[in-house]
Amino acid sequence: MSRLAPIGRFVLGALISLSLPPYGLWALSPIGLGVYLKFSRDESFRRQLVNSFILWMGYFTVALTWMTDLTIAGWVAATPIQAFIMAVPMAFVPRTGPGRSVGIPSALVVGEAIRWAVPFGGVPMSNLAMGPIDTYLVDVVRVGGPLLLIASIGLIAVAVEAVLLTRLQTVLGSLIVLGILVGVAQIAPVGRSENVIMASVVQAGGELGTRAATSDQVAVLDRHLAAIEANPVDTDLMVWSESSVTTFAPLEQSRELSIVSQLATDLDAVIVANFSEIDGDNFRNASVSIDPDAGLIDRYDKVHLVPFGEYIPLRGLIENFADLSLISREALPGTGPGIIESRLGPIGNVISFEVYFPERVRSGTQSGARIITNPTLASSYTNSLVPEQSLASARLRAIESDRWVLQASTTGYSAIVAPDGKVVARSDLKQQTVLTSQVHLRTGDTWATRFGELPISILAILFLAGSALLGSRHRDSE
């Protein structure tokens, strides 16, 4: 059987990465994987590991280029690590036999599930689930979250490989299973609306490619205030972007909090603002809810911090050969579910990077959140790669939780996202604006929020192990 040369596998992986936002060529992921599978049916575990590692190196070399805005050394180090994590499960997929069709989607799910947890708490950015966000397939995330969507991509890849091998029975079987999953998603439980409110997100505006250590943080607060003054709205809930306010600890006693509290009273609206609370050589990334006439009601400190963005893993070692001056302060993590109380009831809150983690949103909805707020930044990046992926993640979180998501960015894309994932309003990059829409406060669970990622992760591990065992027995019988 003819095989792809290593450069061919690398290029194929790079093409698969174009399935991600902002490129939007989602079909390249199952087609590219199907082509790879057809020409990489090697018997030995070692050869399959090498083949799949090269494929994923091509994928992540392109998919993780956004990291170069933070650290080129981090991009160079992260690419092979992420590729290896995805390659190991693929190496267990049997070369032939009845277990191959089950093993392929299972391997993709296992790889992504591991990648979302390690290293450093996981880096689920640039994951395969972001591609088919505008297709009917995306409905399956209400059933099993984004991992089930990734399994669906794997099923299509199985069908593509079978087409290339003219195995029509396998094509039909894969498409039937896929149709069942999409059908179940249409009848799966969803939430219900309780109240209708007006909600707004504020985008301060400014240039891309700026960092907190080298920019005027006072100006960010001023730009938020200027945006509100230039765009007067009648709203019940207003969400500000990440690091919209910078102050010294304790923020509860700061002049800046008094300014925002007075604005909440003037607007007669709940304001969810985000504070960078400096505490010596450290800081806390905190979202607060401010009620009119009452001031600060609750706060949530970001739990899932950005490695090499908000803190430096192994700083003592890395600082010997890298300039860490742009991350001079280390963030202190919070604890507990992503939720803040307000006069509107409990509000889910995930800060920036946390929107990529389904379990962070789930922690809020399981604690009673009826709407999700996502203050984010994106000003550190020089192009639309991260803003596009951040918005795609917000849309996935909206669908799987069946909640409205309000994403407020400083310079990226601010958006109001409906529970079906549709973007009701969206800003432009760098724009100073206020977006407003009628939204619903919702209750109730989907299966994805009720059960989380664990069931599908365990099933994928069992299916992959079973397929590998079947493959081994099939080889022994040949």
Write up this protein.
The chain has 478 residues and is an alpha/beta fold. It folds into two domains: 6-189 and 453-477, no CATH class; 193-445, Carbon-nitrogen hydrolase (Nitrilase/N-carbamoyl-D-aminoacid amidohydrolase), CATH 3.60.110.10. It has 14 helices and 14 strands. Strands 1, 2, 3, 4, 5, 6, 7 and 14 form an eight-stranded mixed sheet that branches. A hairpin with a 3-residue loop joins β5 and β6. The longest helix has 24 residues, at 141-164.
Overall pLDDT: 91
Compressed to H and E, one letter per element, the order equals HHHHHHHEHEEHEEEHEEEHEHEEEEHH
The total tally of domains equals 2
Number of helices: 14
Structural class by sheet pairing and helices: alpha/beta
Rg, Cα atoms, Å: 23 Å
User: How many β-strand runs?
Assistant: 14
Share in helix: 40-55%
* Unreliably modeled segments: none
Tertiary shape:
globular
CATH superfamily of the largest domain: Carbon-nitrogen hydrolase
The biggest beta sheet is recorded as: 8 strands, mixed
CATH class of the largest domain: Alpha Beta
β-sheet strand percentage: 15-25%
Q: Tell me what the CATH architecture of the largest domain is.
A: 4-Layer Sandwich
Instruction: Provide the CATH topology of the largest domain.
Output: Nitrilase/N-carbamoyl-D-aminoacid amidohydrolase
Straight-line N-to-C gap: 17 Å
